[in-house]
Amino acid sequence: MALLQIAEPGQSDAPHQRRLAVGIDLGTTNSLVAAVRSGSADVLPDSDGHRSVPSVVQYVQGETPRVGHAAEASSGDSRSTIRSAKRLMGKGAADLADSWLSKHYEFDTESGSLPAFVTHDGNKTSIDVSAAILHELKQTAEQTLGGELAGAVVTVPAYFDDAQRQATKDAASLAGLQVLRLLNEPTAAAVAYGLDNEEGGIVAIYDLGGGTFDISLLKMQQGIFEVLATAGNTALGGDDIDNALVQWLMDQAGIDSLADSQLESDTKRYARGLKEALSASASVSVEWGDRAGHEVRTELTRESFDELVMPLVAATLKPCRQVLRDADVERDQVTAVVMVGGSTRVPLVRDKVSEFFGRPVLTSIDPDEVVAIGAAIQADVLAGNKPDSDLLLLDVTPLSLGLEIMGGLVEKVIPRNTTIPIARGQEFTTYKDGQTAMALHVVQGERELVDDCRSLARFELNGIPSRVAGAARIQVLFQVDADGLLTVSALERESGVVASVDVKPSYGLSDGEIETMLRESMDHASEDMQKRALQEQKVEAARVLEAIEAALQSDGDEHLDAGERAAIGALISSLKQVVDSSTEREVIKQAVLALEQGSAEYVERRMNASVRQMMSGQGLDDIDSAVGKAKHEACASDS
Ligand code: ADP
Ligand code: MG
User: Which of 165, 170, 316, 548 is 20 to 30 A (C-alpha) from 583?
Assistant: First the structure.
């Protein structure tokens, strides 16, 4: 008799049924959705055949928002037609000041925790706007694929921090999308070209979009993509070419300005058309005029166009040099250069980048689509459609994550460039006798002092059993999931009390802050080490003072005569004075030593007394802790 077969839990009994999963490139200018069908990845066009959706959302009172081409086509109020919302993802009101967005839109920074665009249909955050775009892409995908999506891989720039990644995930859940994984854009582009199969290579991803430029160096090793370095310019892209062409038209027409904003936007659209045509042909005929009778009728050759574009291309090469320097990589160690972004269609861009790296650049996959295609390949694997695939992509933490310890110092728990997902624990202890609560402050950054790092979250652990300083054992666990999101928990072992935070990181990091933070940490390395050593010495001094003073108060009179007590008092005052005034670590150290030596006799008498007490049946709880030393002392909470 045949045995009955039972499927493993979670496994489908219909093995050939594929789960529908897509890759989404949520761009600043354009967004795309792609999927693997019949074994190959391709972009999914919408019902009108468009392969990409402009990242534009128009809000009209009481109506569902118009997204993409529909938003571009209609002539609604430009203040309610939101572009480039990605620039605001995970940012706070402070980041709005003199940004491109603040010049074009009205914001409400008061009502909610996030700055919101004021539109005809109420306030909308960048998360709402991105959700509308994602929703549109989801619908396109479900119509084309004929079923409900199991999930999506959504791409983000490599330099996106926790807050920006979390905002992207929030947008996806608002759109009803299950995020299988957030994937770095350059990593997705490398996957599209199958570069993840090459052992040990260093890949440069050059991404020139509509308004942003990013260059990333990735290293492929044993199935892991490591981001070696990223650089770029958040205000450089195809828009600048369009503006240069508009200026050229004005020069040709002999005018200084364009009459109104309608003419401005029409001219810009016309210029973009010229630019895109010149990527395919050697010259275009120009016919442009305004209502006042100014006009331009001429041929624009690619040669003249190249002259206009040259400064922009040159500006992108600076960050290219920078990433090589940051990663300590020579140009000839780069084994592949991938072109990403619509603006890399411009032949001059390809030529100059190829010249710079001294090798041909990869352009066989449409540079507009390559990120979405890589994301689709990854989504297919994550959805379980390719069980034997070894395509396991891992990213790294861009900055170190740590905890504030006494003295305003940072104890790094997960160093930067650690492969994620990761969980790492570290033990901390109390600073004061009888301390029953601990204030935990989670920070991000490379510097030694908390003030120089970025604050991510604060939380408290309460209910720690009252013990002498340094006796409690608090296990703090940092976990970063595959999307780079952090959870920190603290557990007091004896009582089992726990507390935790999901780091919904405080939104608000200004542009390029990661790069700046890294640079600063290098610039300040030796100065930071000195500051750290000084702070540690001060903490040690405070701990000794705390212990001696507590002891004196409880039994000073019992064990010391007036003269002895005065002598210790003098040592205490002079230690306090050097802690306040000295910046010399050694001076403080000597004063601590003097106090320890000067009170050694007293400490011994106390010890003997407590031993006698113990012998006579008393508790041991009160044995002096002034000599006990704990490695890490988290802050005492006053609450
Ligand atoms: P993003 O990643 O910022 O969303 P894209 O990668 O979609 O941007 O790039 C958009 C930019 O590419 C626009 O400035 C657009 O004009 C430009 N672009 C698109 N096609 C061409 C082309 N054929 N030649 C030159 N530029 C192009
Ligand atoms: Mg892009």
Answer: 548
